[in-house]
Design goal:
Length: about 350
């Protein structure tokens, strides 16, 4: 029996040394256990193989039972740890006050049991950075501003084009030719003069990402290129910032909140490699139904508000997929990739 246990330990730790995933190592050890159990259940009692693996089936059954109990216990603990979220994010000492007009403006929030006055104050204190003022960024920005998020940064190097206006409703016809961040800023400030908007008319690159992200509490990514997505994820993970990531293609959208500092995967755990050229065509190549960015971008704003105020359960460890063509939505459970070079390095 001891020899089998040593072999199992060798598989487990040797596999870990060779960087095999936990699931693979667990499967091989489980297979070894099943083989030994099968030998004991099928061979006669005095068979050499049975004698050399303990002689009796009872200790193996007992070991299997303990193993299952330990596995169940570990699973429950890791689920609880992942699910545990701070319900009451700390509020700074200098809690903001509201004017009469602001109180009236946010009244529909304040009467919500899950938000109330404290939730609205947290929104006013919050600093949110939105990457991209295009399809997903535009609705997210509009709702974050309307909801009273105190400081909203937006970075994008694009200018408004005629072909954007079928879906990016924050920009108007007269904005064609204007940098998107300035057009978005004007729309947000016109809608809610009680928020601060910081536009950055440039492309996000590694040179500025760390310094820029460190000024914000929460990052929303609505970009359409993988290089930027990986840069955003890398920087957010390194700084321990939560990242709400959304994506679109034709009729389908998806979103999730990644915050490995509090458990769960990062973006690159789920999408380890950019798809090959041509496999993930952009909106301009493949098309996108106009209201879809509005749906998914608004969902990103909802997740942001929930994260900031501690209301409900955010989409952490879950990917929500919305299929507009069939009016369906579903959720996929996400887990950390132990081989991920991004979140395992921190
Ligand atoms: Zn990761």
């Amino acid at each position: 029996m001891l020899r089998i246990l040593i072999l199992a330990a060798l598989i487990w730790w040797g596999g870990k040394f060779l960087r095999f995933s936990r699931l693979l190592r667990l499967s091989v050890v489980g297979l070894l256990y099943c083989v030994v159990l099968l030998l004991h259940l099928t061979l006669p009692p005095l068979h050499g193989l049975r004698q050399s693996t303990g002689g009796s089936v009872e200790p193996w059954l007992l070991l299997g039972g303990f193993g299952l109990l330990a596995l169940g216990y570990w699973r429950i603990i890791s689920m609880l740890r992942t699910r545990a979220q701070p319900k009451e994010p700390p509020m700074s000492d200098a809690a903001p006050t509201f004017s009469g007009t602001e109180l009236e403006r946010y009244a529909r929030h304040i009467v919500l049991r899950e938000l109330g006055g404290p939730g609205q104050k947290r929104l006013k204190q919050a600093k949110v950075l939105v990457i991209g003022a295009g399809g997903l960024g535009a609705p997210a920005l509009q709702y974050l501003a309307a909801a009273g998020v105190g400081t909203i940064g937006v970075i994008d190097d694009d200018i408004v084009e005629n072909a954007n206006l079928q879906r990016q409703v924050i920009h108007r016809d007269k904005d064609i030719g204007t940098p998107k961040v300035f057009s978005a800023q004007a729309a947000m400030e016109a809608q809610n003069p009680y928020v601060i908007v910081r536009p950055y008319h440039r492309r996000l690159d590694a040179e500025i990402a760390t310094e820029l992200f460190s000024e914000y509490d929460l990052i929303l990514d609505g970009t359409d290129n993988f290089d930027t997505r990986y840069l955003v994820n890398r920087t957010a993970v390194a700084l321990g910032k939560p990242l709400i990531s959304g994506a679109l293609s034709q009729w389908e959208g998806q979103l999730s909140l990644f915050h490995p500092k509090q458990g769960g995967p990062c973006y690159q755990c789920i999408f380890p490699e950019a798809p090959a050229m041509g496999l993930a065509p952009s909106c301009s190549e493949a098309g996108v139904i106009g209201p879809l960015p509005g749906v998914v971008g608004s969902m990103m704003a909802v997740e942001a508000i929930k994260h900031i105020t501690g209301a409900g359960m955010v989409l952490r460890d879950e990917l929500l997929i919305y299929d507009a063509l069939y009016g369906e939505s579903r959720k996929i459970r996400l887990s950390r990739n132990e081989e991920c070079p991004i979140c395992n390095a921190t």
